[in-house]
Amino acid sequence: MAHAYTPGLKVSSKIRLQKRRILPLKGEVTVKVGDMVESETVVARTELPGKVTPVNAANILGVPATDLMNYVLKKEGEMLKKGESYALAKSFFGLFKTTLRAPDECMLESVSNITGKILLRSKPLPVEVKAYIEGKIIEVIPREGVVVESWAAFAQGIFGIGGETNGILKMVCNAPDEPLTPEKISAEDAGHVLVGGSIVTAAALKKAIEHNVKAIVVGGFDDQDLRNFLGYDLGVAITGSEDKGITLMVTEGFGPIPMAYRTFELMQKHQGQKACVNGATQIRAGVIRPEVVIPMRESELSEELHVEAGSLKPGTPIRIIREPYFGMLGKVTELPSALLKLESETKARVLKVQFDSNNEIATVPRANVEILET
């Protein structure tokens, strides 16, 4: 049987996930191998060095740089309270004083008799890394982080914004081609992950933020609405750090595109369960896709099915990722071995696909499809 290989979106009713949760700097790991963790469990913490502020102390005090140390009231490394004096110079027989005070709680890091400057370092910034998904700690990386393992239902998207969040999964559309409009959102949706159909309108997204919705998972989103929502044109850099009060995952693409039935059905099956969502996306080297992770209960686990990842063969579910069939879903019916001459006069390997929507069969280049992994 013919085989080919192509990257694709994973949509799986059951998958074993392993997530590395790593600190930006070395610190303290707070869990051990074998521990069961929740999404909000802190698994590691550290402190980022505070911002350094240089103060031209010698110039302000009106003293020579070489004598600056004689006017400093505190030792290097000593903590200062807000408004506390750390340097003092007197003039005209003590009648006039020039005092340097800490602008905020900070540390007197260093005094230079060469530049005449004093460096103040603000308080360290605490950083905590959470487990993100519910599961078991299977590895501890000393002073750096952990690996969390979980069995889960899992779906990837095409594009997303916003970072990691979690909430109870709730269907607000009854069909994959139904738009998510403002009237479908209410105050009762606070803390939920809402699943729509073909598109979420800008007004609905705004209302979701007002009602403290955690995340929205939907088939499509208008590119102009995206620019208006972000306030800038999105480039090719990684997303996920946007602080907009909500995480958005688009499963199909831009415009009103019905959510893939496989994905919609998976969300329906797990409605009412906790879902972990991450909108981080990167389309350059080291591809990162947005995702929904639904940790599975013990009762939901059954014998694992082994599927050859990335295998393209007759019967494989695929999505077309370029025109003229962009966004359409179907199954591979044939994988011709011979190269076919395309309209561009180039030759390429192709496949035949039968579309789910109308049962039409079309021939498309293999480079124009991605697998919907199960």
Structure description:
By secondary structure, the protein is mainly β. It folds into three domains: 164 residues, Glucose Oxidase, domain 1; 71 residues, OB fold (Dihydrolipoamide Acetyltransferase, E2P) (Beta Barrel); 63 residues, SH3 type barrels. It is 8% helix and 41% strand. The strands form six sheets. The chain has a 16-stranded mixed beta sheet that branches. Strands 6-11-10-7 form a four-stranded antiparallel beta sheet, with no helix packed on it. Strands 3-5-12 form a three-stranded antiparallel beta sheet, with no helix packed on it. A hairpin with a 4-residue loop joins strand 8 and strand 9. The N terminus is likely disordered.
Key descriptive features of the protein:
16-stranded mixed β-sheet, 29 strands, mainly beta, OB fold (Dihydrolipoamide Acetyltransferase, E2P), 4-stranded antiparallel β-sheet, Glucose Oxidase, domain 1, 3 domains, 41% strand, 8% helix, SH3 type barrels, 374 residues, disordered N terminus
